[in-house]
What does this fold into?
Amino acid sequence: MHFKPHPLTLAMAGLFCLTPGLLRAETFSSLPPPPTLNTSASGQQYMLELVVNQRERGDIVPVEQRDGHFYVRAGDLQRAGLPAEKFQGQQQVDVNQLAEVKVEYDDRRQRLLLSVPPAWLPGQTIGEARNGPRYPGQVSSGALLNYDLYATRTDTTGTRLSAWNELRFFGSAGQFSSNGVWQQQIEGSNSYQDDGYIRYDTWWSNENENAIVSWRAGDLVTDALAWSSSVRLGGVQIGRDFSVRPDLITYPLPAFSGQAAVPSTVDLFVNGSRSSQANVQPGPWSLTNVPFVNGAGDAVITTTDAVGRQVITTLPFYVSSNLLKSGLSDYSFSAGAVRENYGISNFDYGAAAASGSYRYGLTDWLTLESHAEGSDNLAMGGVGAQFKVRSWGVVNGAVAQSQFQGKPGTQYSWGYQYNNSWFSLGTQHTIRNADFGNLALLSNQSNTTNQISYSLARRTSQYNASLSLNRYGSLGAAYIDIASGDNERTRLWNLSWSKTLWGNSSLYVSASRDQEQGEWSGAVSLIIPFGEHGSASVSMERDQQGQNNQRVYLSRAMPSDGGMSWDASWANQGGNSGDYRQGSLRYRNNKIDTSAGFYGDNDNTTQWADLSGSLVLMDNQMFAANTINDAFVVVKTNIPDVNVRYENQSMGRTDKKGYLLVPSISSYYPAKYDIDTLDLPADMTTPKVEQRFAVKRQSGFLLDFPVERLRAASVILHDSDGNPLPVSSQVLRPGQATGYVGFDGIAWIDELTSTNKIRVETPDGRSCQTELLIPEGQPQALKTYGPLTCRLPPAPAGTPVANPDNATSGIIP
It folds into this structure.
């Protein structure tokens, strides 16, 4: 076989036979000139990439080289992050003369590499201090009645009935509530207060979420600090209310900072768990996206550069929710008349009084407090502070002065709190002189009808501590020392130990000592669960009189979705007290909660029965539910038997009118509600399957899932020859989205009415019009209409067309 080389092959062979010197000369003579702007007597200029601390920004800047030094424009250095004060007043900066700066020229990649101190570069914040997403509280107009009917019968006092109720109205103007109890002795002796209705509280309130303020008019309880007291007034109250904005974080969270010399990765571990990871550029950085923690802990920060070198730093921290963020304030002001004989008299108001508190976060570690209150013959005011001592806990202190009935008085209080994952310690002390007074003392003296003289405790001391022993359980200790105004002293010790045993079984041991009487009492309790809901416990007690008591307790807890529960106990009380027996049975569904039982010994037994629940009026509908203490939602679908879920948990199915009441939800909590569309009829649809929102306090909201009949169907479109219109032809209707023709000329059309004008445009530019008339006026969902004739003009010659049987394709001649 003879091979004849190609002429191009011969030419290339000849080229590679050139001498090496000639090859080098030809090669380098073809390269472009070096990347310089010009060459002058003053130096040589380059266009180089400016890289600072290995951070490649992609900036190409002019650089001049003179006598081995590199000059860069001041503006280019500023844009690269270098501080202007390092080269103040210079237009061209000799970077080789900058202190602490290392300069390197990378001629291969045409780069100027600068290494500067990390502190020179701009700071970076990783994870801006964030709040959660905000969901404003929603409310609809409605009314609610909570009720609790209770009946008791004893061998000695006979039968007595009582009915507690709360009537509530709510809407955009706020919430109105009034509650009280009605009592009546049916038979036997009446050892209680007078029969009839006793009103407890009546008030009207509202909230301004934007200003984070709430107000209340009517019966109220004044807000108090740790070193002041609350009293009941009839009047008005206004104050900061952070509960209406759960998206805000009011207490300071720790922030960690550091420096990176080169681009690096920063990992944050809080108490052993990684909470965040971020990439940082050279320079100072601060990390603020710390998880919501409380108490003491350790943060481990790991900085890793591009070549894998790591720097690990451990930093302790302490977080207290009692502190306020720097610059944040909290306040409350109340004024009115002192409520007297509460729970005894319906409308008994005494002297005018006012009370106010103010707190301010001066720094993240210091929160200032102040309080003042006054009434007839009383004025009291004081200041205090909460101070975080690094990672060792929080110290609080306050001093208050009073003028009560013409006599001055002083109160001092201080305390300390510390807790971490395995240990906690707390103490609080208060010292008052005999003449110190406040509104609580004035209220107690006003409420008495037998001229008993009340006085505040002269001294109180509280200590508590707990210690986790891991698999050996946990220990607790507490000590209370109170010296009353009449010089009586109470000193109590309490020690406890608890441990989880096999499964969910637990053992609890406690001992108490009255230091004044010098006597001990104690208890040992063993709790054993049976199955998912059942449990049993056996306990032994010894009281201060030296009597031994034994108790056996059996119970079955109420399932979360309702049903039956029960409990029974027997106790040997020792001495001549006899045996104590108790038992109860309870049934709850989504409309009522009822229970009955008995308790007592051989000499006296009490039988009781209880029925509680609520009635809701909303959207002209009446609903029954369990007692609603805060907020609720009424879901409306207009379709019966649709499953409704709250936070992915099934809450039940809509009734025959399409409603479902979701009771007892937390106000201002942004919860998710959704319905199961598989429960809808085939000809029904809804544009909203899931909604997330929050409900205002003490209110309800009507949540509408608009379920509507599906007004869509398939329509077959043919041309004048009876052939299906081409695939991908556009179906155009006024005010509707564009549809498309599929195989066999079938198009899916939404939002059908009795008269539907249709225009079709084919892929080759032809168009035609037709009309779909539905005589019944209401289209039948999932039905196929047609075929409809849409008269297309003839296709241009050479246009591909489909065969009538859709088996082959052809070309129009």
Notes: The two ends are 53 Å apart (CA to CA). The helical segments are 7-16, 20-29, 74-79, 439-447.
